Amino acid sequence: MSQFTINLIFVGASFALYFGIAFWARAGSTKEFYVAGGGVHPVLNGMATAADWMSAASFISMAGLIAAGGYANSTFLMGWTGGYVLLAMLLAPYLRKFGKFTVPDFIGDRFYSRTARLVAVACLIIASVTYVIGQMTGAGVAFSRFLEVDNDTGLIIAAIVVFFYAVLGGMKGITYTQVAQYVVLIIAYTIPAVFISLQLTDTFIPAIGLFSNHTESGMPLLQKLDEVVRELGFRDYTADVDNKLNMVLFTLSLMIGTAGLPHVIIRFFTVPKVADARWSAGWALVFIALLYLTAPAVASMARLNLLSTIYPDGPTAQSIEYAERPDWIKNWETTGLIKFEDKNGDGRIELYNDTPAFEAEATARGWNGNELVVNRDILVLANPEIANLPSWVIGLIAAGGLAAALSTAAGLLLAISSAISHDLIKGTINPDITDKGELFAARVSMFVAIVVATYLGMNPPGFAAQVVALAFGIAAASIFPALMMGIFSKRVNSKGAVAGMLAGLISTLVYIFLFLGWFFIPGTASYANTPDNWLFGISPLSFGAIGAVINFSVAFLVSSMTEEPPKEIQDLVESVRYPQGAGKAVDH
Predict the structure, then answer these.
(1) CA nearest 415: which of 102, 116, 58, 130?
(2) Residue 106 CB contacts under 8 Å (≥ 6 apart), including other chains
(3) CA–CA distance from 552 to each of 181, 237, 424, 452 (Å)?
(4) How far is the C-alpha of 456 from the C-alpha of 125, rounded, in Å?
(5) Considering only CA atoms, which of 502, 65, 145, 165 is closest in space to residue 329?
(6) Lowest-confidence range among 287-291, 344-348, 519-523?
(7) Rounded Cα distance, 561 and 313, in Å
(8) Any idea where the domains of the chain sit in the sequence?
(9) Which of 85-89, 480-484, 583-587 has the lowest mean pLDDT?
């Protein structure tokens, strides 16, 4: 049986499962569409939350980033994990007690302002659309390789699948589909990791294998990896970062951006009561940890396997001939995600850090520039092929990568749909809309969001995890401060909240667009990816934390110069923070 047939079986079976669940759990009311009827068991909700959380960026791109950057890129791991803890402890229980299941709903009522609600809708849509681009990009990568179609066709297939189970089932269908997707993705992620850990370290637990000895050399695995990358002109894999400020800000941006993303917050309204929301948060952390504890090992082993494939006798010996390249390189070349250019005409593949600092050494070895470009997003998906694992493992990871991308995409699209149908249409434009009319508007909104996300996925501004990082920065600068002030400050009023959200959002967007060269203004493109031009060395991906500080500062300043919130709003904040009978939810 061919590898393509095996991939088709695994992917097709998983899609059939998702479709079956969506049909079984289809939503018949707005309550089922938005919060799955509010009756999901905490363990199942924890599993669905984990699937919602662990997107294509976690499954596909995070390990690729850590593999490429080593310790310096561990910020993704720390930021996303810390952000979930922040969300579970500081926001979720209080928002659940408040009883408003969308972020704009909470902000509109807490700050007693239609303008605040509309600004929150805008912030949510911008952050969620940016985030969903990363998911669609990841889905396109997986489809293009494993179903042997081009990237755009893969995106369209992914959009059709999400459209079916998300539009039909709403949150009810998405919840139970995400439970299945979690099972698929965690099995797909850990089984190849166990195989590869056994190959390289004789240890079947990857997280332990990372700190074990490399079987072939007898050296600690990370020491062996440091030696290999150093010989090819790269920084040591375990080397510290030079710009500590940027690392701290980026980690903080990911953390508070994570806590401010609405698609996970909604999940805490699918359980019967506040106590169940707390249990859901705990179970989700357990399920998330299974993948996040494995990711650093997957990254390290993928990097070592990749370089060992190109330089089988070590980085100072001859590399492999291009004509004799392994099948996995040939397979990924057809997708355009691996590219080779024979710059010195010797017919061999040279993969090294093509920088001025290594130029003399490269010239001495007869090299004339790096010849192999490997897209970071493929490392996890290609890992089983690089390690020559059985065909069924490759098919399994194909299904897992797609499950990760589609689960989060569905959650994000539901958040966008809810913001438009519930907060914009029902909350502002047409408060008298019927339940049936709102449900129809929600489905139409989701259809439009899927079309827009698919188009943007075909034209992404970066690779999956980078685009996702931008989404987290936007959420950190706009949504998170408003939620925190809404819960923990009785003094912040509607004027302060609106001014803060706008200041945080606009400053962050301007910085991102300017320093990534996305403004269509002559001369600004020169700022793209040039750290020397960044303010105080702060990366555009890290600016969300600064945007959050701007948001808090402006909100408190404006609030202090204007009238206090009404007494009933202050009492409402008091009741949310110090609830009476915390086990009972407020009805929506």
Answers:
(1) 102
(2) 95, 98, 100, 483, 486
(3) 37, 37, 25, 32
(4) 14
(5) 145
(6) 519-523
(7) 70
(8) 3-301+388-473, 311-386
(9) 583-587
Give the ranges where 70-110 is alpha helix by DSSP (H). Answer: 75-86, 92-98, 103-110
126 token code pair? 């911008």
pLDDT band per the 50, 70, 90 thresholds, residue 22: confident
Q: Where residue 524 falls among pLDDT bands split at 50, 70, 90?
A: very low
Q: What value does the mean pLDDT of the chain take? A: 84
* 8-state DSSP, 356: G
| DSSP helix/strand/coil, 432 | coil
Under 8 Å between Cβ of 501 and 478: yes
User: Nearest to residue 370, comparing CAs of 391, 349, 398, 395?
Assistant: 349
The radius of gyration of the chain's CA atoms, rounded to the nearest angstrom, is 24
pLDDT band, residue 529 (cuts 50/70/90): low
Phi/psi at 317 (nearest 5 deg)?
-95, 180
**Which one of 1.20.1730.10, 3.40.1030.10, 3.40.50.620, 1.10.760.10 gives the CATH number of domain 3-301+388-473?**
1.20.1730.10
DSSP state of 542: G
Instruction: Tell whether the model's pLDDT for residue 133 goes beyond 90.
Output: no
Q: What is the pLDDT of residues 56-68, one digit of tens each?
A: 778 877 888 899 8
> Using 50, 70 and 90 to split pLDDT, how confident is the model at 520?
very low
Length of the chain: 588
| Nearest by Cα to 103 from 481, 443, 452 | 481
Cα separation, 316 vs 313, in Å, equals 8
Crossing angle of the two packed helices 464-488 and 567-577, in degrees rounded to 10 = 110
Rounded Cα–Cα distance for residues 258 and 280 (Å): 17
Query: From CA 124, how far away is CA 104, in angstroms rounded?
Result: 8
- Residue 588: pLDDT over 50: no
Longest dimension (CA), the chain: 78
CA atoms within 13 A on the CB side of 191: 20
Residue 420, SS3 per DSSP? helix
To the nearest 10°, the Cα dihedral for 108, 111, 112, 114? -40
What DSSP designation does 122 have? H
